[in-house]
Specification:
It holds the Pfam family Glyoxalase_7. The chain is α/β, with parallel strands linked by helices and 126 residues long. It is built from two helices and eight strands; from the N terminus they run βαββββαβββ. It has one domain: 2,3-Dihydroxybiphenyl 1,2-Dioxygenase, domain 1, CATH 3.10.180. It has helices at 19-29, 79-88; strands spanning 13-15, 33-38, 47-52, 55-60, 71-75, 99-100, 105-111, 117-123.
């Protein structure tokens, strides 16, 4: 049997519909950094990469790239500090709480302006 490949990382692609709202949510609110953006022509859909620590996301306005309403889980350290930073911004449409789950995690759940769900979680240590 051939040896399995070594997976180095995964880059989720999330659908977006509005460049301004995407940048406001991902860059201003969540604290991602813009790495690059691309359009084939000035009036064509935007495709961009944003990063937060080791997390890399691609956001796309292209119709066929992905489905709106997707969900991803993101393991982070220091969930409390992340949560405090989000609340300190007094975002008009997002005031997430922290939930302790039966599956032994603490989670902050967010929905972006396009219906994509991001679950930031930290495992509980016994």
């Amino acid at each position: 049997m051939p040896e399995a490949p070594t997976v180095l990382h995964v880059t989720p692609i999330l659908r977006m519909f509005d460049e301004y709202k995407a940048k406001q949510f991902y860059l201003d609110y969540l604290g991602f950094k813009l790495v690059w953006e691309h359009r084939f022509e000035p009036d064509m859909p935007l495709y961009m990469e944003v990063v937060l620590g080791a997390l890399k996301l691609h956001l796309s306005e292209h119709y066929g790239d992905c489905t709106p309403g997707s969900a991803i889980r993101i393991e982070i350290q220091n969930l409390d500090a992340f949560h405090t930073r989000l609340l300190s911004q007094q975002h008009a449409y997002s005031r997430p709480g922290i939930e302790t789950t039966p599956w032994q995690t603490r989670e902050v759940r967010l929905t972006d302006p396009f219906g994509n769900r991001l679950v930031f979680f930290e495992p509980l240590v016994n």
